[in-house]
Write a structure and sequence with these properties.
221 residues; 9 helices; 16% strand; globular
Length: 221
């Protein structure tokens, strides 16, 4: 079963690898979440012995390209988008590569494409003049419309603006597993959109509170 929010870590991520013990020797086999500071990573990876796993909480395929598989192999990392995940992600990458040769997209770059595409779809529904007259109209429509594109597949936008889609856990391949340039990740598991993000009710978003029935903002519209 894929893990779902909330994701319990017995050790919270530290500010960097220098600020705390990386791998406690008396805890073999544990996974150690960490928000990466890539310049200090290579000299610590050799310390991973005895089955420990390093988890890059915010990591990108471009980082693996910089480090190389010899250094990064075995690293666990989360990504919402990976270019070789499925036929749709590969089709997206084939369209983008001619415009950015030898620079494969990560989830942030693919996210920029996805957001722009969804906005343009909503703009087509609302019309340019209505969109100019009221930004709110197009934002509200973007939240009502389901999202779907080659980068992330089907998804949605919640009332608080949170984009919901599946999130994936990958493991960095060993050098001998790679079939060629940028073939760096293998899928470990997928957490469906419904369990991948903090629930709306726990977010405390002022926008959502203002839109609840009976609120002053809701009554004024």
């Amino acid at each position: 079963m894929a893990p779902q929010y909330p994701f319990p870590f017995r050790d919270g991520p530290g500010p960097d690898l220098e600020s705390r013990t990386l791998i406690p020797a008396h805890h073999p086999g544990r996974r150690h979440p960490w928000q990466p500071r890539w310049p200090v990573l290579p000299r610590h990876l050799p310390e991973l012995a005895g089955g420990q796993k390093l988890l890059g909480v915010v990591s990108f395929v471009n980082d693996i390209h910089t480090l190389g598989l010899d250094t990064a192999q075995g690293l666990l990392m989360t990504e919402s988008f990976y270019w070789d995940l499925n036929d749709h992600s590969r089709a997206f990458t084939e369209r983008i590569l001619p415009k950015a040769p030898d620079n494969y997209s990560n989830q942030c770059q693919a996210g920029a494409y996805s957001a722009a595409l969804h906005y343009l779809k909503a703009l087509g529904e609302v019309g340019l003049e209505r969109a100019k007259a009221s930004d709110r109209k197009i934002v509200e429509l973007m939240k009502r419309m389901l999202t779907d594109d080659d980068a992330f597949g089907p998804g949605s936008i919640r009332a608080d603006g949170r984009k919901l889609h599946d999130v994936h856990l990958f493991e960095v391949k060993k050098p001998e597993e790679s079939r060629g340039p940028w073939d760096y990740l293998k899928l470990a598991r997928t957490t469906p959109a419904a369990g991948a993000f903090r629930p709306l009710a726990e977010g405390g978003c002022p926008l959502v509170k203002a839109r609840r029935p009976g609120s002053a903002a809701a009554l004024s519209h």
